[in-house]
Every structure is written in structure tokens, then in C-alpha cells.
Design goal:
Elements lengths: L2 H9 L6 H12 L1 H30 L5 H49 L7 H29 L12 H27 L3 H26 L4
């Protein structure tokens, strides 16, 4: 039995439950590492994007003008929610198209090297599963991170929170999420988790400092 036949037997996506089939496909195509990388990278992007929007709102909204402040807050909330949705769609579609193209090329080159048609092989089927899983992770991770951060903002229209308190809570959630992502990266790399946590938290702090500097230079503060 050839190595390819052995792999097909061992990783056949037709055996076992759905979760087991997906995990075997990811293992065969090294998709776990790719998905994990996208998870951390895109959640980080989503968190910093929301931090920028929230800080922009906190800086520019003028509490001395309640009517105008309410309109500005609603605009920021809509922008934050819209950005989260856009990141999900962009992440999923872009990742799926890119990953699928790369995997198809990989299967084609493998077939040329083995002088056989690999398009219907178990490996080719596994690459399709991997492309879909990676795309879901790529799209979901920034959107979920963003929605977790902006959750306090949804309590403002009902009067549970005023907009400043909601902004401050959202910023605190964002910083905690950035730190948690750093701990995750440290655990994955088997390095000092606290150092990685400090690095990702520092990125958030630097974003806040730069936003304050820009608001001071442009006179944008409310």
C-alpha cells in the first residue's frame, strides 16, 4: 500500500462524525496552525479597530450639547456595528477565495508530481474543508471581538448606561481582550505568556495615546 493510500485510509472524511471529519481534514492539511494564526491576528485587528472608533467617539462628542451628542453617539454605534459586519464578510470571503486558490494550486502541483489526477483524492477533499474552516475563523474572529467590545454601547439607547460610561467600559473590555490575546499567543508559542500579554496590551495603549495626540493637534476634542 502506498503512502497516499495509507493517508486516504487514515484521514478519509467519509468516516466518523462531522467534527471528527473536520479535525482529520485540518490535521492532514495543517489547517489548525493556519486557523489559529488567523484567530489571533484578526481578533487583534478587530479589537484595535473598535478601540479607534470608541476613542474617536469619546474624544469628539460634546456633553454640553445633548441633542448633538445623541446623534453623534448613534452614528458611532452604527459605524461600529457596520464595521464589525463588514470585517466578518470581508474576512470570510477574502480568506475563502485566497485559501481555495492556494489549495487548488497545491493539489494540482501534487498531481503533476505524482503523475496522477488528485482532484478527487481525500487530500483534495480535505483542503476544501480546511478552506471553509479557515474562512469562518478569519471572518468570525474580528467580528466577535468587535461585538464583545461594543456590547456596552447597546445599553445606552435604553438608558441603562450613559454614553461616557459605555465608552469607558468598552475601552476596558478592549484592553482586557488584547491582554487575553497576548496570553493566548504566549501559550501557543510556549513562551512567557505575561510578556506577550504586555506586548498586545501595549499596542492598545499606544493606539489610545496616538488618538489623543491627533485629537490635540487637530482640535477635534469635544
Amino acid at each position: 500500500m502506498s503512502n497516499t493510500d495509507e493517508e486516504n485510509r487514515q484521514y478519509s472524511p467519509l468516516e466518523g462524525g462531522r467534527i471528527n471529519r473536520i479535525m482529520r481534514a485540518l490535521e492532514l492539511t495543517k489547517g489548525v496552525e493556519i486557523a489559529r494564526r488567523y484567530l489571533a491576528m484578526n481578533a487583534f485587528d478587530g479589537a484595535l479597530t473598535m478601540l479607534g472608533l470608541i476613542l474617536g467617539g469619546l474624544i469628539t462628542i460634546n456633553p454640553a450639547m445633548p441633542a448633538e451628542a445623541s446623534l453623534q453617539f448613534n452614528a458611532i454605534l452604527l459605524a461600529a456595528a457596520g464595521t464589525s459586519i463588514a470585517m466578518a464578510i470581508s474576512g470570510f470571503s477574502g480568506s475563502y477565495l485566497t485559501e481555495s486558490a492556494e489549495r487548488e494550486r497545491e493539489v494540482e502541483e501534487m498531481g503533476k508530481a505524482m503523475l496522477s489526477d488528485m482532484s478527487e483524492s481525500m487530500y483534495a477533499k480535505a483542503t476544501k474543508t480546511t478552506s471553509m474552516v479557515v474562512a469562518v475563523v478569519d471572518g468570525a474572529s474580528p467580528a466577535i471581538a468587535a461585538f464583545i467590545i461594543i456590547t456596552p454601547l447597546f445599553f445606552v439607547p435604553s438608558g441603562v448606561l450613559d454614553y461616557r460610561a459605555a465608552f469607558y467600559i468598552a475601552i476596558a473590555i478592549c484592553m482586557a481582550l488584547l491582554f487575553a490575546l497576548g496570553l493566548f499567543l504566549g501559550a501557543v508559542s510556549k513562551k512567557n505568556m505575561w510578556v506577550y500579554g504586555a506586548k498586545t496590551l501595549f499596542a492598545g495603549i499606544m493606539t489610545a495615546i496616538l488618538m489623543l495626540i491627533i485629537s490635540w493637534l487637530t482640535g477635534a476634542s469635544g
